[in-house]
Amino acid sequence: MSQTNRHPHPELTPEDEDLADLFPRLTAGDGAVRRLALIELAELEDDAHAPWLAWALTDVDAGVRLEAAGRLAYWEQPGTVQALAEALADADDDVRRTAAISLGEIKLPESGVLLLPFLSSPDAFVRASVLRALRELRLADSFTLALAAADAPEPEVRLEAVGVLGWLKRSEALPVLTRLAGGDASAEVRRAAAGALGLATQDSGEASQAVLQALQGALRDPVWQVREEAATTLGKIKFPASLAALVAALQDDYWQVRQKAGRALGRLGDAGAVQPLVAHALTHSSANLRKEAAIALGEIGDPSALPALEVAANDADPDVRKLARLAVTKLALAG
Q1: How far is CA 168 from CA 104, 146, 149, 194, 196, in A?
Q2: Which CATH architecture has domain 269-335?
């Protein structure tokens, strides 16, 4: 075992001339020399060299480990995934963070399976990073573990667990997501849970009612980003019963929430939104909100919006004029 590394190096293959040439520098006593040799090795882009990059993650020099952690984002092999997961507990914060970023690049479900045991780590950073890496893999085996992690004491772990549950889109997660959206201590977790509730689109009955209640509550959240996410999700789900809550959100203190509420009302397609959209959005001082109102009124397609849209067709903002005219044409064709 080299004094420069905590583990024996991989087998040196004599026929690999590139590796043989770099070997003296990869095992040199100077960490800066080892790091430069590692860069040269990585730039050869030979999959056979991946074990050497994984080995460098156990180097005694944090700079070498950091280089290896970054370079391994481009090698997805069982050994490299395992090494990156272990590096999440590195003594150096930069190495830990870089390993987490590299793990976020994995694409293969079989790589995700290798990460599952790390969800039992006592380190919240490790668990949160693994959950983040698992999110887009949609690995069925991660569901139960993510459900348990949604009750973790650390908000960063709960946040990433919500991400996994959202991507898996399983209705069994609805009770947990509705609870988090409506009452988690972390605004970021509440916001993420409100977005993840979009998986309920195809649900009905009691589950849908619970989702609606949670999102209506989120529209009254003290943090505007949570209210914005709730409005966005209601637009995706298209609950008819969400009309009143979305109309009220048109007068939110934050334009971002009002804009998403206007968009959601357009998708809802309820003629009951026409008058509020005209009164609170189509004539608002914000051009972005007027644009959203014009689009929404065109989507709703109710002819009672025509007089207001014809006025908006002469708006001072060119984009508002364009969208209002498109809405007028759309209503005329529908009529």
Answers
A1: 17, 10, 15, 15, 10
A2: Alpha Horseshoe (1.25)
